[in-house]
Amino acid sequence: MAKIAVIGTGAVGATAAYTLITSDLAEEIVLLDINRSRAEGEALDLGDSTAFTGPVLVYAGDYPDCGNADIVIFTAGAGQRPGESRLALAERNHSILRDVLTKLAVHWRDGLLLIVTNPVDVLTYAAAKLTGLESARVLGSGTILDSARFRYALSAYAGVDARSIHAYVIGEHGDSAVPLWSRATVAGISFDDFCRQKGIASPDREAITAAIRQAAYRIIERKGATYYAIGLGIRRICEAILKDQKSVLTVSGLCEGQYGYRDTAFSLPVVVGKNGQGAALELPLDTEEESALRKSVAVLKTAQERLGL
Ligand code: NAD
């Protein structure tokens, strides 16, 4: 059983802690927030939950308490306001990340770092550079959520359990995310072939791609933040790590030459297990997907340069 530290116990951090409490993955969860009282409130509420879930030691702590954490989850910082892009948060959240990682480094050396705060790819790149940790140990939640949204959209369209659909979104977790339509399959057959066999038309790719890219905007406009699906996405990544499941997930990490790209971080399907992430997989892309990925990487590199990374 493991110890997890959650830094930033707002909507996303608290929801992630809640999903972890209900999943029997960790025996100890430490919550840390610049607003100590908020972390304490969440810890008390979550502590009460353990009478229903089974014993988990959950408490509000400080950096020394993170020392032996197997996974440190970074969810601190500003979220998008209605209509605001993730990239617009870069400067504010980069400075919070720097501050947190400097304090963390005094106490924490082993374990894995999971970045969730937006813009997640830019901050994952920054975290890898700032900590100097080997690239396998610095993961970003990346497009795990976008891939879930893609699978959910295809599932609703085709009337098949989303868990029976393999479909990936790569690139930026943001406005330039790239759904890989050419690789989407059900039972090993392409999604278009599946639709033909079912006697239904192929879905409107542009509409679904736009819905995936705009999903967060639609939710934030209505309820101010997104946190349930990413909370479960965080749990899924922690599960793959702590149970050494070697699951293929679209998480963000340092790109090491895949598709010819370097010196940046974005999501590709990766095998995730106890040592973090393996080398990212290179799926064959069609020309449209190649061009969309090129644009996505260019967006991220520009954002990195603006931060001086
Ligand atoms: P929130 O405002 O509810 O919570 C942020 C928390 O961070 C607050 O409790 C705040 O006190 C804390 N914080 C700020 N500075 C800190 C510091 N220096 N040290 C410790 N704690 C600090 O925001 P939220 O809705 O929980 O979102 C958090 C981040 O997660 C945002 O950047 C948001 O865009 C991002 N997010 C990412 C995904 C994803 O898929 N990667 C999905 C949803 C949200």
Describe this structure in words.
The chain has 309 residues and is an alpha/beta fold. The protein has two domains: 2-140, Rossmann fold (3-Layer(aba) Sandwich), CATH 3.40.50.720; 144-306, Alpha-Beta Complex (L-2-Hydroxyisocaproate Dehydrogenase, Chain A, domain 2). Helix content is 43%, strand content 20%. The chain has nine helices and 14 strands. It has helices at 11-21, 36-53, 90-105, 120-131, 144-158, 191-198, 205-223, 228-242, 287-306; strands at residues 2-7, 26-32, 57-60, 71-74, 112-115, 138-140, 165-166, 169-170, 178-179, 185-186, 189-190, 247-256, 262-273, 276-277. The strands form four sheets. Strands 3-2-1-4-5-6 form a six-stranded parallel β-sheet, with helices on both faces. The chain has a three-stranded antiparallel β-sheet with strand order 7-10-11. Strand 8 (169-170) and strand 9 form a beta hairpin. Helix 1 packs parallel to helix 2 (36-53), helix 1 (11-21) crosses helix 8 (228-242) and helix 5 crosses helix 7. The radius of gyration is 19 Å and the shape is globular. The mean pLDDT is 97. Nicotinamide-adenine-dinucleotide binds at residues 7-13, 33-35, 38, 75-80, 89, 93, 96, 99-100, 116-118, 120, 141, 145, 173, 225-227, 230. It is found in: Cytoplasm. The active site is at residue 173. Pfam families: Ldh_1_C, Ldh_1_N.
List keywords for this structure.
309 residues; Rossmann fold; six-stranded parallel beta sheet; 9 helices; binds nicotinamide-adenine-dinucleotide
CATH class of the largest domain: Alpha Beta
Biggest sheet layout: 6 strands, parallel
User: What is the molecular shape?
Assistant: globular
> How many extended strands?
14
Helical stretch count?
A: 9
CATH level-3 fold name of the largest domain: L-2-Hydroxyisocaproate Dehydrogenase, Chain A, domain 2
Number of domains: 2
User: Which percent band covers the strand fraction?
Assistant: 15-25%
Element-level helix/strand string: EHEHEEHEHEHEEEEEHHHEEEH
Based on the coordinates given, report the CATH architecture of the largest domain: Alpha-Beta Complex
Distinct ligands: nicotinamide-adenine-dinucleotide
Report helical residue fraction.
Answer: 40-55%
Could you tell me the mean pLDDT? 97
Q: N- to C-terminal separation?
A: 36 Å
* CATH superfamily placement of the largest domain: Lactate dehydrogenase/glycoside hydrolase, family 4, C-terminal
Secondary structure class reads: alpha/beta
Q: Radius of gyration from the CA trace?
A: 19 Å
| Major sheet strand order | 3-2-1-4-5-6
